[in-house]
Automatic annotation (TrEMBL):
Pathway named in the protein's UniProt entry: Cofactor biosynthesis; tetrahydrofolate biosynthesis; 5,6,7,8-tetrahydrofolate from 7,8-dihydrofolate: step 1/1
DHFR domain location: 3-179
InterPro entries: DHFR, DHFR-like_dom_sf, DHFR_dom
Top-level EC class: oxidoreductase
Function: Key enzyme in folate metabolism. Catalyzes an essential reaction for de novo glycine and purine synthesis, and for DNA precursor synthesis.
Keyword NADP: yes
GO molecular function terms listed in the Swiss-Prot or TrEMBL record: dihydrofolate reductase activity; NADP binding
CC annotations in GO: cytosol
UniProt source species: Rhizobium aethiopicum
Official protein name in the record: dihydrofolate reductase
Amino acid sequence: MPSAASIVARSYPDKIIGIENALPWHLRTDLQLFKQRTQGHAVIMGRKTFESIGKPLPKRTNIILSRSEPAFLKEFPALKWAINPETALFLADVESIISGSMKFFVIGGDQIYKVFEKYINSIFVTDVYCGNINGDAKFELDFGRKDDEAKTEWIIRSEDDFPKTEFDEYPFRITHYVRRKPFHRYRVKEELMGREPDFAALLERYEARLEQAESDQLDFFD
């Protein structure tokens, strides 16, 4: 099935990701990179995260995880509502297969990250060097010591530093972590295909792409 990824920005060293449902900084470069990485994919978020954004993210399938039906669904009919994590995963799977995407993204908030943590194979973490701040939401996942990756669950695929500029309020670092042993999810084909022959053909093409992606990943780690 499609692989789950996360994107999160947090303060360093306090690991704060939000204050009263808002970002504590403005980093235009980080927002542009977020847009580039997530466009064309399904994104899963909580109701409060969507309300902080204020509108659906364009060129993405927006899936809202909420125990009760959000009132804003009537205003934005293209949104997908999931009443539980299993439904959110199912919607992300189907939308990813239809679009031919290899992955989907979990984008917040703090409780949503925790719910899907066990499924995540790849995380883009933006550490914002803004100093000590107070906030009401955190992302506290521990990736282990960088000098002893052989003993950690996560390894670093890339790491890039960005300076403070007139468009970026603070300097920051983006680290791409990947799970050493990827978590794989499985579904019975019939559950996804139903009776639609067109979807069956899509699934076959998607499986071929997955096999190629897995082969490329093995080459990378060899």
